## 1
Amino acid sequence: MKRRVFIKGAAVMTAGAAAALNGLPISRALAQNGPDLAAVQGGEPGIMFDKAIQAFGGMKNFVKPNQKVVVKPNIGWDTPVERAANTHPELVSRIIKHCLDAGAKEVVVFDHTCDQWKRTYESSGIEAAVKDAGGIMAPGHVARHYAEVAVPGGKDLKKARVHELVLEADVFINVPVLKHHGGAGLTIGMKNNMGIVWDRGDWHRSGLHQCIADFSTVRKPDLTVVDAYRMLMKNGPRGVSENDTALRKAQIISPDPVAADAASAKLFGIDPAKVPYIRIANEKGVGAMDLSTLAIERIRI
Amino acid sequence: MKPSRLFIGLRILASTAVSLLIILATADLWGFLAPGIVRVATWLQFLPSLVRALTAFGLLAAGFILVLALTLLFGRVYCSFLCPLGAFMDGVIAIRRRISKVKLQYVKPGVVRYFILAGIAVSLFFGSMHLINILDPYSIFARSAQALVRPLAIGLNNLLAQAGELAGYYGIAPYPFSLPPLPVLGVILAWLALVVWLAAARGRLYCNTLCPVGAFLGLASRFSVFRMSMDAEKCIQCGACSKKCKASCMDVENKTVDASRCVMCLDCLTVCPVDAVEFTAPSAAKEVETDPGRRSLLFMGAFLLTGLPSRSAAETGNGYPETIIEESLAASPTEPLAPPLSIKRKASLVPPGGMGRDHFTSACTGCHLCAAACPSHVIRPELVAHQGKGLLAPSLSYEKGFCNYNCNACTMVCPSGAILAVGLEEKKRVQMGRAQFIKQNCVVATKGTECVACAEHCPTGAVKIVREQGGPGLPKVDEDVCVGCGACEFACPAKPYKAIYVKASLIHGKALPPKKGESVQNLVGEDFPF
């Protein structure tokens, strides 16, 4: 397998290369008249994903044989599944299975964690689930794995160091967990992208919302799968105890990252227009925040 | 085969096993070695075990009693069978012998070792561990392995990781490379050079001059039941034993063996052409040194007792220091912000289970096993970090990480009781320090943008975001709930100075449990809101 070798350190990818990334032909050929967004509720994470991806004509519309896929869950915290601070492992494992069934060459999973990465991979249950499903668990804590890319559409964020696995991937599937966030209001898909970036301290320093929205123009996920099986309703993004969580048994999936975040915000009970990064990303034309303009498939199990 | 050969084999096996276990404990990047396995090697280490007995109690402290009992029976078997530095020196001596002939010979007993013991007793009386920490053979060995072998292991691991990545295999994760701070590395290298030089030139001279364990066990071995002796009738004074003896204790002229310096390597038994050297229980008639024996018994007792004052000194710490930053918190939001404030830490952070500066520094021998065990790389070896106390005792640094809330790895490996074992639930309440917020450094206060990195990382909910009239959220610290893990300090993006940092508690407190709050209602079955 070939692996792109990045020039270490200050190497800045040219605007041209970044533009190429930006304009990557989205590898999916949506089933004609497929929905813009699917929302499922009432089942376990795996079953819900089966139904949701079916609404889009199956994973084969997103993943072609021999493609390299990156699945990026939220694995930020050294907490168990019941605390709902990380993406549900069952969902991650089901997505991997669908990708492999669609003929993916490899499915790699990683996160640039907040807590100590090894413990986080373990206690979230995601490492075991990934290995079980035949995916590859990759480290996200190594600085040299991140290459600098320009953010041509960025207002406050002009460049960011992005994990090379994402830059090399044919298909990028973002799998956030929907939860409360003390600063961003909510953490959903676009916020989850902070886990593919090395120098996120810059984002906190220069303004979280603008940077999240700026970065959403760089590498749009081909699919966003929002895990709302159990939602962290307060004390987010880490949570203090199980008391902070509510069982919701829902899932939202969409190729439009802004639509996915907007629908999730509504599910959480917050007007998406009041979450600044969703509003800014909408204004930038990254995707559609107004759900009334979208074709939504609602599935109840 | 002579039975002595069998025992020499056993000696090499035991000392190699102990040394390897300690090296593996420092180079175990992946957490393969259970703490219990490492303990097999460390609980028999005489000095840490003795320190543990004097500062804490329990079964783990009993290792030194076993070593003492063995010494009273068989002499200084610790020095050749259990001491990792002794094994290392034996290795150096063996290599030196291969290179060229070393002229070892009998040397009259010196008194340096007793001055060292006296010096330690005096310094312990004043509550200082400095002399012990610099001289203890186990600690020298362990920290040298931590400083030198571990980086090698990391380098090897990272090469393998890189090779794996090229083949698309991510099973080996790269590991952050780190060396101890330069002053620590300097001390370690200097002492290692001294040990190697002494061993190469004079055998086990270190053990009989500078080593406090050697000196102390030497006093005990004067009373040992079994010991080396020369059969005056058989001995032909050929000097073979004296040339072989690493401890320079075979006096062929007078046909006696200085038991206080004999490290029980048993080599002499194999070289005597007439089998005059024997390991036996000497008859009372052969015993000559009665007077020095009595003196040394008194000395031993005095030495054991001197450890106690240091314990009581540890309990007289001056409570929690005054907070100095509070005023800036109280400043009203309308007042203009003062210029950025640099963080001046008065005291260094002590790992959980260390109970605070005084206990920690009075029991730490500077072996740095805790630093090797810390998966978050926040325990950093230091030369003198704790206000002049605790030479080579590590401290916590939150520059490159923070103390993982859900982890008590360091508390499971400390052999000397400086870091006492604390269960995971108990550890989550240990308050190593308290977070302090400096508003004038905070990006939210200076720029008006959202940040919340500190509150986001806080595992206990001690750092909360408070908003006034819908403005951007500023952190507020509930110091009683704070455990001092440093997650907020590490995450704080403010430059040049952090806006939140952990002030060390001189004596560790017990944090209040995280406030759980009301349980949230489940929402299963509600309709889609869109």
## 2
Amino acid sequence: MKSTTIALILAVLIGAIALTQSAFTVDQTEKAIVIQLGRPVSDKALGPGLHFKLPLVQNVVYFDARILDFDAKPEEITTTDKKYMNVDSYSKWKIIDPLTFYTKVRTIQGAQARLDDIVRSQLRVALGRYTLIEVVSHKRQEIMEAVTTRSKELLLPYGIEVVDVRIKRTDLPAENARAIFGRMKAERERQAKQYRSEGREASAKIKAQADKERSIILADADKKSKIVRGEGDALATKIYADALGQSPEFYSFTRSLEAYTKGFKDNSRFILTPKSPFLQYMQ
Amino acid sequence: MNWDWDKLQKQQQGRPGGGKPPSFDDFQEQFDKFKGFKLPGWKLILPLIIVLWIASGFYIVEPDEVGVVKQFGEFNRITTAGPNYHIPYPVESVVTPKVTQIRRIEFGFRSTGRARSQAFQQGMSREVPEEALMLTGDENIVSVQFIVQYMIKDAKEYLFNVYDPTKTIVHAGEAAMREIIGKGKIDDALTTGKQEIQVQTRDLMQEILDSYQTGISIVAVQMQNVHPPEQVVDAFKDVASAREDKSRFINEAEAYQRDILPKARGEASRIINAAQAYKESKVRQAEGEASRFLAVLKEYNKAKDITRRRLYLEAMEGILQNPEIEKLIMSDEALKKSIPYLPLGQLPRQNAVAPKAKQ
């Protein structure tokens, strides 16, 4: 009885050890291949789940099946209008054929070296066809699509799928940036000047208009004043004429006397003859 | 936010009701113990261990989480909030990412003392020029600081499709914002176009992330601080002050206008009133004079001769009573005999007049 118990325990133990040595799981984020003496056993990679292999002679190599990053170093690139720019790009890629990948590049580092070469040269070629402003502005999408497509083709033989190559930053070397700053400054200064001179222009117009209106107002007043004064003079003349016309002779007489009174003041010398009516009673 | 499976499993083992799941090593140990020491009551211990192992399959999914269950490493099912059960280790395992939490990534600046992706916090921030400076479509350079808020929309994609989701969002954000800024003009970014840029960037980021199947939803892109580069900021400020100068000049001119025109109108009314006053006084004066004349005339007509004489004499009297006037009486003969010599030089202002009243 005792020996059977021990045998049972042994059997369970051996079974358990065999199980741990042959069963293996592949995570949802991975793919795996089984290697026997350095060669892949099947030509198909294993997806996630529970798998079995022969203990001891076979071992498992896991590959990350997720989209991986490759962040390239910024590259100085010459555009077709002979301008330099630093282009910083990133690539998203994944291992789609672990078997090919394992035989051709083996590791992630190896893959990144390949990516670096290919993406870099493709970017150079593509960017060299456009001007700086096209790269920055409206041809960006086009360039990225072209680079992605070409890199995809070139990296497929390594079991790598390039999902996307994207330009992150397009910066200018210091001296170009300085030139741009200079231009920006000049543009803004021009704008500021324009605003100020527009302001002065508008101000001068308003003032001139105001001065004109003032002159017109005063001239109108002056005209009206003259008319009114003239009316006054005319009316007065008419009143005088109406009254004095009743006896011009008497008017002449009284007015002459008044004039003499006012006219002969100081420093006058009167020579009167005795015949003067004034002296008639002195004889 | 890289999922570290070991850590997760540790977390899980730390869950209430989890208990320590037994491993094969534990079993072997147990067996060694049975063999070596013949522990009393091992028949009790073994079922207890099995019960504990079964109990370790219970787990709670919080309201803001989903449970993602893997069976032998393969994705199996999504579980929702509440208590759930999974077949214990090593068959199934579970992770519970928070799917309603909105996370935040900063671009072009860092809130002081915080990592790049942290919960929102007000406070000081520091610019990161190499991230913030970008080229615009009209060949200008502008500094853009913005944040991206995102959440997990598909836990399965988020957990299994992309190696580093956060880095992927950072990449997509930088690329998208630069692409949109590169299409526009600097003034759009600085002033009125912000809203449009935010919307376009968000859409482009979403498109990029969906193409990678990241399971991430971009909630919002918010531009925090957009300004011209340090080197040219003064010139930009001067434009603003020039704009103010312009309106100041115009205001001053309008003030001048509002000042002189009423004055002119006042002056005009003064002139016109003076003219009217002149007219009225002239007319009244004439009327006065006329009526005086007519009154005198009326009396004169009654006694012409005597009135004439009276008026004449009064006038002469008035003239001659001035002591300053020289009077000289000469007979006609003497006048005729005297040489008409007029020493005008001696008497600068002398009039020799012999008035003869008409009879």
## 3
Amino acid sequence: MSAAVSTQLLDVISGAILLTAVLTLWRRDLAAIIRLLAIQGVFIAGLALLLGVTERSGELCLAALAVAVLKAGVLPAILRRVLADSGEVRETAPLVNVTASLLAAAVLTLLAYVLSGPLVALAPSAATRALPVGIAVVLLGFFMLVTRRRALSQVIGFLLLDNGITTTAFLATSGVPLVVELGVSLDVLLVVIVLQIVAARMRMAFGSTDLDGLSELRD
Amino acid sequence: MATGTAMAMLMANGLLPQGPLPDRGVTAAVVLLVPVVVPALAAGLAAVLGWRRWVAWVAVAASAAVLVAGIAAAVATVDGSVLAVGGVLRADALTSAMLLVIGGVSVIATWASVEYIGGELGAQKTTARGARRYAILVALFISTMAGTVLAANLGVMWAGIEATTIVTAFLVGHHGGRRAVEATWKYVIICSVGIALAYLGTVLVYYASQHSGGADGLKGTLDWTTLVAHADRLDPGVMRIAVVLLVLGFGTKVGLVPLHSWLPDAHSEAPAPVSALMSGVLLSVAGYALLRYRVIAVAALDPAFVRALLLVVGIGSVVFAASMMIAQRDYKRLLAYSSMEHMGLVTIGMAVGTPLAIAALLLHVLGHGLAKAVLFCASGQVLELTGTTRMDGVRGLLVRRPALAGVFALGIAALLGLPPFSLFASELALARATAGAGLSWVVGVALVLLLVVFVAIARPVAGMLFGPYDATDRGHADHGDTHEHPASVGAATARRWPSIVPLALGLVALVALGVAAPLDGLLQSAAAIVGTR
């Protein structure tokens, strides 16, 4: 693969990762959001594979496989189960409406470009120039986490944040050491499983997963 | 100081002789593996056999093994040397000090757990399944914390802190019900997000290390010793972003503003011995991560930036905690906010960063850990006795249960920094170090806040201890809430003394630390490793 082609591919994939993140803020249908998250997982795996091929690194290709299984397969499957159990198909009343969310997404993306200036400056290359995408996805995930009220939406926000971090890690460093990467993936998986169980308990205790019900503990 | 750091690094790189190697290698392996492996084995035993009284005592023995390993590590590292096993596990004086904190608090908490879970099973407040899960998770919790402080690699250290969130999630939710579910959800979501930010910071540090230049092969590493040795070559632009993320991220687990809101809920809903472990050790283990990163940050960046950042979150946390304590009506939440206040003080010590300040904050961490372990475990017994966590629901404790009330009162005295307890010495040393670094205004602010905290704690606690105890009130308080499980009253009365013993031991340790100062050498060595200027 020539350098020009791989650079173009890299840009296309990075763009797709950002686009899927923005679309999750646009959709209200939770099943569609989970689908978007899975698609984003495929693109992140593609990014790792592309970097692995251009750098001829078997370790990176292995990481790409792990990312594909986890982010496009296992995690969305768990989320679908939570969704099926809960019977709530839509994020009914986000604290910020869709139009405002999309405007906020634009502002956050600009902010990501400003923030990642020093990161790109350290080692300018095709990959690091795409770094603002990773940071933008982190910010969008954080935004989703604080503005949505369904428990499942919050988990999705957390996973979006994690996808952003994984993207940043691949773009900046071609992946942290495999041991650490595996540890992180395992942690994310366990956190989601823990949250799945807690969400089930929440339904038993409160009858819904609307987090406005969480108001007994305050001063 | 600088020579101490340099020597430690040379030794870690194998450039200085470490004594007869095979011998020392085996000792190091044993000392470093015991704190991780033995509690994990205790967890396995509990998984196989379920909760039994003797299995619970095995957990106490495992905690004692951590403490003994900590003492052995302290003896080996007090001179500034380093124990290492295969580049994965590593212990210097700082690690040893943290192992002492983990071991000491764990002994108290697991010992208290024997009566706590035994009582709950007797009163049918928990099931055999719940007790088994509790026993497994508490042992795993201790093992992961020990692993965190022993990790040579900052990535592994991160994974250890994240793992503590996972193993403690169901401990926070042990009691079930709406409040516990709510506390668990907040705890897992907020801490996971915080720790994810810390991971992003870790990635950026790795990125900076990949491009730090130089021909000696610093091609991307998270090994702490190597990073410290080359910290001045890390790119300041990237490191500035990384440090902000790390302080925010690990600060979440320390209970610092702005991501602190999980702390009072989790601490007040968790079973008392778990609160003791979380407040006494978990917070400071996350603080330990900040200590490790601070040395790198100060060398890579403008030290004034790092100091300002830590001062803002430190003072902010103390101010917030003090303001929440003033009108607090729940004693477990009062203790939780007090943890936040003390972690704020520790962070201020970190901001000062001189060897004196570091030694003082380590002593403070140890003292706070022991005092909080005593207080949370005692508050669990007060809850069992009275059935309420509201302070105005507890009256005349001194008349009803002199021993418990005495332990509680002495614990509060220790927490408030009264002599002869070690927090008096450490707070004094912290103030001296802060003033010595030209930050007298910080001392002034902190003193005012501590005065507020003193009143906020002392006044309601005095009511709990000495308040008029009305016999007609007894029917309401004792039987009003516990009538569903009358067995608990009998069981609690029968096992009064055994549950006081570990708490009394904690108080004795606090006095010994305050009066005899046996750890001065170790703490100074630790301070030489992560202190600056």
